[in-house]
Amino acid sequence: MTEYCGIPLRLKKNSRAKRVLIKLVPGKGLEVVIPKRFDPSLVPGILDEKKRWIERTKATMEARGTDLSGRVPELPSQVDFQASQRSYEIGYVDRPGRLSIVENGSRLMVSGPGNDPQALLEALRLLTANKAREFILPRLDAMSRRLGLPYEALRVRRQKTRWGSCSARGTISVNAKLLFLPLELLDHLLLHELCHTVHLNHSKKYWSLVAHYAPEYLQLEDELKNGGIHVPNWFA
Q1: Which uninterrupted H or E stretch holds 90?
Q2: Which residues form the YgjP-like metallopeptidase domain (predicted)?
Q3: Domains of the chain (ranges, CATH numbers)
Q4: Is 201 helix (H, G, I), strand (E, B) or coil?
Q5: pLDDT, averaged in runs of 10, over the chain (236 residues)
């Protein structure tokens, strides 16, 4: 079975997985993660049970311009940052030499070699990472003070899969992709990592602390696992 509902299918075994996890990954397709001892022959039946969700999620992603086939992404004409509620129209100028992006209100003008779309996309990715830091840092600071959960520093990264992490020294790292997610999911990720400054694990004490601040955390955790549906293919 190489595809499902017209979507490329990848099956991955994970020794740490406790249950079957189904994800639609931009640029890659449908990813099914199963526990190490799970019987792969049961996967088709599980997919059939989730078929409506898969088709609905696929439609949502494609409506946002997200490609699930693995093709090289096209240059976007617009970028929408859900978390900060900012949208920009994007124009391109074919100009040899150094790349540049000029922001004018709700419009971005990207200048660079028109025969190198990957370079133009990289410039947009760097801009997104900078916008993510500008938006997330004051939000994390405010949440840290409000909850009394101090942290050491913030790093914004461009990671493939992880939304965030917290080091033993209290440095919180977050994925720039969070800027594309709904604000409630970004805020939950920040809470998730701030709680790690108290418990650097996923023990019962840790989840009790998360639940103290967010009683609905289980639903938010599930939504965050599928947060990739909000990320456009050019940034994935």
Answers
A1: strand 86-94
A2: 19-226
A3: 3-70 (no CATH), 78-127 (no CATH), 132-229 (3.30.2010.10)
A4: coil
A5: 84 89 85 92 94 91 72 84 98 89 97 86 95 99 98 94 95 98 98 98 97 97 93 86
